[in-house]
Structures are given as C-alpha cells and as structure tokens.
Amino acid sequence: MLSRTADNLYWIARYMERADIAARLLEVGSRITLMPSTHGYRNEWDSLLQSSGTANGFSHKYGDPVQRNLESWLFFDRDNPSSVASCITAARENGRIVRTALTSQVWDALNTAFQELRQLERTPRSELELSRLTEWVMRHTAMVRGAIDATLLRNDGYNFLNIGYYLERGDNTARMLDVKYYVLLPRIEFVGSGLDNYQWTTLLRAMGAHRAFHWAYGGEVTAAKIADFLILNPQSPRSLITCVSGVGNHLTRLAKAYGRTMPAQGKATAMLNELETTNVEAIFDEGLHEFLSRFIRDSAELGTAIHESYLSGDLR
Amino acid sequence: MRLTVDHVTCYRYAAPVRGVVQSHRLTPSVFEGQTVLDWKVTVTDGLQGGSFRDGAGDRISAWSVIGPVSEILVQVTGTVDTRDLAGVLRGHRETVRPEVYLRDTLPTRVDTALIDLSEAAEGADGPLEAAHRLSAAVAEAIAYRPGVTEAHTTAAEALGLGEGVCQDHAHALIAIARHRGMPARYVSGYLFADAEGKAHEAAHAWAEIWLPGLGWVGFDPANACCPDERYIRLSSGFDAQDAAPIRGIARGPGAETMAVRVAVCTQGQQQEQQ
Amino acid sequence: MTTYFNEMYDNGAVRAPYARLEDWMRQMPAELRQMKQAEAETLFRRIGITFAVYGEGGDPDRLIPFDMFPRVFTAAEWTRLERGIKQRARALNMFLADVYGRGEIVKAGRIPARLVYENEAYEKAVVGFVPPKGVYSHIVGIDLVRTGPDEFFVLEDNCRTPSGVSYMLENREIMMRMFPDLFRENRIQPVDSYSERLRRTLASVAPAKCTGEPRVVLLTPGHFNSAYYEHSFLADLMGVELVEGQDLFVEGEFVWMRTTEGPKKVDVIYRRIDDAFIDPLCFRPDSMLGVPGLMDVYRSGGVAICSAPGAGVADDKAVYTFVPEMVRFYLGEEPILNNVPTWQCGKADDLKYVLDNLPELVVKEVHGSGGYGMLVGPKSTKAEVEAFRLKILDDPDNYIAQPTLALSTTPTFVAEGIAPRHVDLRPYCLVGESIDLVPGALTRVALKDGSLVVNSSQGGGVKDTWVLAE
C-alpha cells in the first residue's frame, strides 16, 4: 500500500489511543484531588501534566494548575496537541484522507465521535460533568477499536493500525507508571504507606485494570505487584510486554506478507526479549525510573525504525 | 570560430537531501550557425532519464540523483564550430508557432515606462529596423552593472533602476517587442569574450524576435549587437525561467547553495568567469 | 412571458418516459417524502459525500442538495444525444491533436490563429508531442441544456478534469436503496459500469514503454480540495491508488509511487490537478502539489497523463464557438448538437450587440467557471446590469454573451410539494482506444424558484438521471 496511507492508518490508531489516555489522565487527576494531600493538589496535577508531556504548554497558557483549566487543557484545548479534541479531530481527518482504506463501520465510528465532539464543544461547560466527558471518550475509542477488529480485512492496513495502537499504549503505560513512581513519590519512605496504596489504586483504576489486578494477584497492593502487572504480565492489556509483543506480532505479519524483514522487526524482537527475561527485582535494582526512561527511549526508537522502514516512503 | 566550453555548476545542500531531479537544456541548438564537434554533460551519480527534442527545437534531458546526497556537480564540456549568420536562426527545426511568443509573463510585462521605451520603433522602415531600434533603446536605457538586479527582477523594475545584467536586457527587449505585436523570446547560451574582454558574461542570455521573411533573429542589447560566431545557443522560452538551461528541485529540507564556473575559449585564448 | 419546456407534462398530458412516475408522485404522502428526504441526507452524510464551495467559507462538510424526483430520458432520446456527444468528443480530440501538430484547421482559416496560439491554455511545452493513442481529453464533460422535445444546446465543453461524476453514481445508488420498487417498474439502464469503463479507458492509453498490466493512479491535489471526496470515491471504485504529488517521484525514465514495499512504477496518471501545478520543473516553480520532472518523463514516453497537459485550449469559452466548425472540418459531418449562439465581446460588432441588449443576455467570463462572475440579464436589477456593463467595457476580450435560454424544467420536490425547476445535463464521455458513454449523466437543478443557475455553489442541487431501456 501507499506509504502515506500506512502512515495515516498508523496515526488514526495513535491519536485514538492518545485521546483515550488523555481522558484517563483526567480521571486519575480528579480522583487524586478527592483525597487529603500533604503537598496540595498542585503537585499531583503537575505530575499528570508531565506524564502527558504537555506541562510546559499548559503553564505557558494558564499558569497555575486549576482544576477547571486542566479539564479545558486536557479535553477541549486545540492548543494542546494531545487533548481529546485535538486527537479525535486529527484521527478523523486521517480517516477522511484514507476513507477508502476503512470499512464504513470504522469510518462511521470515527465520524460519529467527531460530530459528537463538535456538539460537546457547543454545550455550556456548566452542563458537562467530568465523568460524563471521560466516559464519552472511552466509549468512542472503544467503538472505533471494536469496528476495526470486527470489520477490517486482515491486510497490511490492519497491521499498521495495530502497530500504532500498541506503540502508543506501551509508551503511555510507561509514562503513567513513571509519573506515579518518580514524581508523586520522590521519597523512599512513602513507599508502602497508606497514601501510596491509595494512589497506586487510583492509577490502576485509571487504566481500567483495578479489578483485573485483584483477580490476578489478590491481597495487598504492593509496588512490586503493580510493576509486574503493568510491565511484565502478558495477561494485562496495557502492560509493556503486551504492547511490545503486539507491535512485534504485527511487524512479523508485515515481514511475512512483504517477504522482507526490516530493521523495525529486529528492534521489536530485542525489546521483547529483554522484557521476557527480566523480573521485577532486576527492574527495581536498576531503578524503576531508569528502567522506564530506557523503555520510553527504546519505544521512540522503534517508532523511528517503523517510520523509516514503512511510512516515510524512502524504502527502496 | 571553434569554441570550447567548460561549464561546471555545483549544488551543495546544508543537510543531505532525499533526491534531486533536474531537467537540462544544455545541448547546443541545431542550426546553420553552429556545428557540434563533441559535447558531454555529466551529473555526479546521476541517472539519465528521457531525452527528446521539444517543439521549440531544444534538446531536453532529464536527470535524477538518488539520495541521500549533499553535493552535485553538473559538468558541461564540448567544442562547437560557429558561423556568423548576423543573428538569423537559419535552419533551426521547430514547430511552435511564432504567435505563441506574444504571450506575456510576469517578468516581461510592460509598464508605462516600457511602453514609452517601445516608441523607439515608431516610424521605423520595416520590422527589422524596428527590432534594431528597440534593441538599441534597451541598451541605452539599462546600463550593464552586475549585482543590482537578481533572478526575479522584472523588466519593468530593471528599467526603473536603469541598470542590470543580460537577463534584464533580454526581458526588457522581449517586453517591448511583444507590446508592438512582434513575437519575442528569451535565449540562453554561451558567449566568448575577445582579448579586450569587451563582452559580458560567458553564461549569457539574449532575445530573439520573429521577423516576417527572416524568421527568428537574435538581438543582444547587452552587447549592442546581433549574435555572431562568438555565441553558442542552447535554449529558448517565454522568459529566463522558462528558458533556463537547468531547472531542478531537491527533495529535502537542506538549504541549497549554488556555485557556477563557466569558461568559453578559443585556441590560444583563455577566458574565465567565476 | 417565456414558456419553458416541461419534461414531464406536455399540455397537461404526461410524456411517455414519466408515465410510471405520475402514480409514484401522487401516492407519496408528504410525511413519507420528508422521511425519505431525511434518509437520503443521512446516507449521503454517512458515505461522506460533501461539497465545499469555493470562496464561500462556512461548513466544508456541506451537502449538495439531492432531489429525489428523477429526470428521465427515453432510449430514443438518449441515442440521439449519445451520437451527438460522441461526435463532439471526437472532434475536440482531433482539434487538440491538430493544433499541437500541423495546425491544419488554423491554416484553413476555420479558426483564428490568435484564439489558439495566444491562448493561455495552449501549452508550448507539448507542441509536437503526441500523447499515447493520440488522445488528449480522456473524459469529456459536455454541459447541455434542453429547450424543447428535440432541442438540445451545448453550453460548454469540459476537456480537462470535469467533476461531478461521483454524484451521478451516488444518486443512483441512493435512489435504488430508497425506492427499489421504482427500479422494478421502470426499465432503467444501469450506470454502475462507469468506473470499470473509466479504468479501462485509462489503461488503454498506457505508454508504449509500459509492458504488462498498466498501473493507473489518480492524482489529487489533496484532502483539502473541495472535490477530494470524488477523487477518493473514483479511485476506490476503480481499484487504483489515490496519490498526492508527494507520493510520486521521478527516477530515471519513469515515475514511481512510494509504497510500504518500495517503489512501484506508475504508467497512467489520471490527474485532477491543473496543468500549471503538475510539474514545478516545467510549469509553476512554486507548485507543491505536483511531481518534479513528470513532464520530462511524459514527453519521453514513460508515463501517460490524463487529461493531456494542454487539453484546456479546446474548452476555452472563446474556442467553444468554433466546435461545430471542428465537427465539419475533421469529421465532414453536420453537428448533431448545436451550440448556443454566442457573441464575442472582443469583436466590435458583437460587443455593440451585447451592450445594446444586455438585459436580455447571459454574459460570462471567458475563463470563469462555477457560475461565478456571470450576469443573467433578465434576472438582474438595472444597477447590476449597469455595473456589469462597465466590467465588460473594461476588458471586452474577457467576456462572451449568449441569449437567455428557456431551460427545460422537471418536477422537483420543494417545500410546498412538487414544482417545476430548471435543469441542465452533464454526461461524461470516455475517450481512449475507443469512445464510450454510459447511459446516464449528472442532472443539476436550480432549486430556487425561477432561477436558471444550476451550479451547486449558487443554490443548485442534483438529481438521478434515468435512461430507459428500449
């Protein structure tokens, strides 16, 4: 297929996943502010902004993080390229460009999300509760994802969509985890405290993994269990290993279909090998923050390799 | 006169580019005034594409270079025997009708000053004399001075400045000739300068005006003459851009710089221009 | 008072092609009609068929209004039209081959040299070059109006990239979904083979250097273009890639497409970009939409471009006047379809007539399109007419004038029920190795009461157009 078409499909997926994540961040944020805090809310919101990578943009526009401004920023603000509105608009525009590479169900789902977004934007903010907004996003991102899974041909386009989803998701799980560990809990003595548990639980909730986690592990919530669940557990839908192996699988399918292996496959395999052979102790020994920073860097390099291998159009 | 040409154009890119595509009109025209003895064009790592003669009689050759690449040399070398035909383009095979060259383009559009200048042809005894008068008027109105005009300067602007280079002279002459209903076009080529160094610019440009009975006739206001055995004709067009011997584009963000070296020599004489 | 030919009723009696629509129309209750209209709109929006209006801003996702009342031709009516359309498309192509070659028609004094060689649309770059199979205009859109049972006039020819064919196909699709019974009761010739015929036409003009199955692509200016939907729709129906300039590149003797599996050679480009933008090395150097070096590949036989660069000289409004002359000159036949009498404001006698009769005439810009920059004398105020008079006097060469034609009407659903509205017709004739026309066309309808302007940018809508089987 045209490299540009592959690129558009890949970005539909990345933007939809990013919209989903922005909504989840909003949810985490509002939950955290519901609890007593020794640092004030400001720190918690700050850390969320940092995890979305838009802290500078926010402070430039609004200054202090006030809840209402944060909601605007993460949901409606077109100046924030990662806001829900920006992501859904960009995903729909990418979809319009490659309309014929999508089924009518997928296009319908994308277009409906966009049309409803425009209605939401015209609704007075006083009538919009945060929970309604975040649920709205998750419903639509799931609808698009579901339409893709249910109706799309399993061809190269399907692979590029999935690569986009998994890459974006892995990157974001790593960022959320990093923020939680590094920013919210800078001092080691907090680890294991009640506050800590509450915040960890909130994080799990935001990832929609709260119940799944309890089914999988049971008992006390510990940092080690959460790290295992979100990094190394292949059953967890958002764990790093699930995401990397998802990218890897779809890259393998492409290599098979095209009869040709590219540098991207090697990179994904190396990342997967590492995750399969490490354990939580080793990760904590290295330092969770260091481990996650390395993962985020590797993930970006994998993205570059995918771009160069398939999306840039420079392949010969 | 036997003229040898050594013409090198060097393109450098600040950052390597994905590829380069060029369209060349670097082959001497085929007509009674010039006979090619040998002629060669090379492009560093270039892939030659199609080559054909277009309706205006120019030989066009396509080139592409596969990137990443950060420097390209286009080298033209060759020898041509030339004859003085008093500017007449005799024996040149072309199918474009002269009327096509009545159309104006941005750099050859007249303003009131150019219209005034075109009145030099008033009362001339026939089109040939009119054309000579127009050429002389341009030579008088625009003094040769490099560095005051640039590639996008229009005929009207150059006349306003009263100074310019051969491109500006040619544009001005084309503009006023067309204004008087005489088909006119821009010609690119080479010029050999004699020992006194009187001629300007080895990579040269002049104008051709179509005259009933004679066909296309060259006029070089920059040197106040008609092209003779010192001239080598390469290509023609509505204006400088349309007649450019090299048109090219690089894919990539790297800023392009260009350096040109042209030498046109005859036996025992040497002339070089940076 | 002008009387208009009503295509459904002739002195109160229903004309034959509409016989079966009479009951359908009468039996449809207002509520059902409204429901169906809403359903049609939803369908259009769902498939994404929208139309952005040049220079009007506003909603880029605006729908072009669809009128459910079909427009009908009998097989006999169509046969005559078809002969006329093909004749004209053939003559236009022969004209193009001639003026880029020996120019016999000019030498014979049948058309002024000035109109051809000094025309902005005449491309010097392709003089002497013969495109594959000698075809210049591969899709000829001919705009027709009807003034009586057997009277059709050509308003203008579109030899470059006529748009709107997606509406012809979608209108039919939607009518079949909403009113399947109508299609059982009436024997309507299908149009859905258009895309396959278009693909075949394009493939038939692959250059000689192409061996094997030609790869055809559709080149669009991009997703911001108002006709992007149509480009994407046609590419999909034909099963060819929809590319932008950035997806193609020139290397060696060929044009290549950037794919996830590496470069693929392209043989035929159906371009929906104007000449000026297709190659910055040959035309406008600032064009970002085109493919650098494309024209050199084209002129050395490495790729076909449809329509051929330079084809626009045949559909210029000043050249239009001479199309009947082309038919006689090249085919030795009398034109089956007539031109509308046209006055060239550039000619002194014509200009005088135009200025004396301005309130009765339609005046258009020579290079205008889309219904912009025109005067409809009888529908304009005195002040508008006078303002336009000054525009004409300022640049007479830029204007032509025609009598105000009594455009036929067909029944159309309007707020109050059903009323006659003026229509025109644009069939799409395909010219490749052979010449081909599907039995169908785009009917545009002026939805405003009394309006004669059918352009979608000026409040026009579209209808499904039926050609009945014998």
Give structural notes:
The complex is a heterotrimer of chains A (316), B (274) and C (470). Chain A is an all-alpha fold and 316 residues long. Chain A folds into two domains: 1-151, no CATH class; 154-316, no CATH class. In chain A, 76% of the residues lie in helices and 0% in strands. Chain A is globular and about 60 Å long. Chain B is α+β, with helices and mostly antiparallel strands and 274 residues long. Chain B has helices at 112-118, 127-141, 155-161, 166-179, 240-243; strands spanning 2-24, 34-43, 46-53, 59-82, 143-144, 163-164, 184-191, 203-211, 215-219, 231-237, 246-251, 256-265. In chain B, the strands form three sheets. In chain B, strands 1, 2, 3, 4, 11 and 12 form a six-stranded antiparallel beta sheet that branches. In chain B, strand 3 (46-53) and strand 4 form a beta hairpin. In chain B, helix 1 packs across helix 4 (166-179), helix 2 (127-141) crosses helix 4 and helix 3 crosses helix 4 (166-179). The longest helix of chain B is centred in the middle third of the chain and has 15 residues, at 127-141. The model of chain B has no long low-confidence stretch (mean pLDDT 92). Chain C has helices spanning 19-27, 30-47, 75-99, 104-107, 113-117, 165-178, 180-185, 194-204, 228-238, 294-299, 317-320, 323-331, 348-356, 382-394; strands at 9-10, 13-14, 66-73, 139-148, 151-158, 216-219, 241-243, 248-251, 254-257, 264-266, 268-271, 304-306, 338-339, 343-344, 361-365, 375-376, 399-403, 409-414, 417-426, 428-431, 435-437, 442-446, 460-467. A five-stranded mixed beta sheet of chain C has the order 3-23-22-19-18. In chain C, strands 13-5-4-20-21 form a five-stranded mixed beta sheet. With 470 residues, chain C is of the alpha+beta class. The chains are: A mainly alpha (316), B alpha+beta (274), C alpha+beta (470). Chains in contact: A-C, B-C. The B-C interface holds B 19, 21-23, 47-52, 54-56, 60, 62, 64, 66, 95-97, 99-100, 102-103, 238, 241, 247-249, 251 and C 100-101, 103, 113-114, 117-118, 120, 122, 124-129, 249-253, 280-282, 285, 292-293, 295-297, 299-302. Chain A: Residues 1-311 form the DUF403 domain. Chain A: This is Alpha-E domain-containing protein. Chain A: Pfam families: Alpha-E. Chain A: InterPro entries: ATP-dep_Glu-Cys_Ligase-2, DUF403.
What structural keywords apply?
heterotrimer; A: 316 residues; mainly alpha; 2 domains; 15 helices; 76% helix; globular; B: 274 residues; alpha+beta; Immunoglobulin-like; C8orf32 fold; 6-stranded antiparallel β-sheet; 4-stranded antiparallel β-sheet; 5 helices; 17% helix
